[in-house]
Specification:
The model has no long low-confidence stretch (mean pLDDT about 85). Helix content is about 40%, strand content about 20%. It starts with 6 loop residues before the first strand and ends with a helix. The chain has about 100 residues and is an alpha+beta fold. It has a single domain, classed as GIY-YIG endonuclease (3-Layer(aba) Sandwich), CATH 3.40.1440. It has a 3-stranded antiparallel sheet with strand order 2-1-3, sandwiched between helices.
């Protein structure tokens, strides 16, 4: 069985409080890329970015599915996710979606 890279879901906070969600195999590297303008266009020129949340997300397929679910959350639900930092994101998202 081939070894798959371990992916992470992360959320970055801009100085204005906006939360950006993404996935990567290396959160530190990706944060540095975003900070120097080599990441998402929506974050360019937004100022100093802070890592607000990160968690393991399995393989790329699972990470992508989790990313889509998190991006569909309201700002308030994302803030709860950051505050609660659940151990199992899938269980948390199932709860969050049923609470819409």
């Amino acid at each position: 069985m081939p070894v798959t890279a371990n992916w992470f879901l992360y959320m970055l906070r801009t100085p204005t409080g906006m939360l950006y969600t993404g996935i990567t195999t290396d959160v530190t590297r990706r944060l540095a890329q975003h900070q120097c303008g080599k990441g998402a266009k929506s974050l360019r020129g937004k100022g100093e970015l802070a890592l607000a949340f990160q968690c393991q997300a399995g393989d790329r397929s699972r990470a992508s599915k989790l990313e889509i679910k998190v991006k569909k959350l309201s700002k308030a639900q994302k803030e709860l996710l950051v505050t609660n930092a659940p151990e199992c994101l899938e269980n948390y998202l199932g709860f969050a979606e049923s609470g819409k």
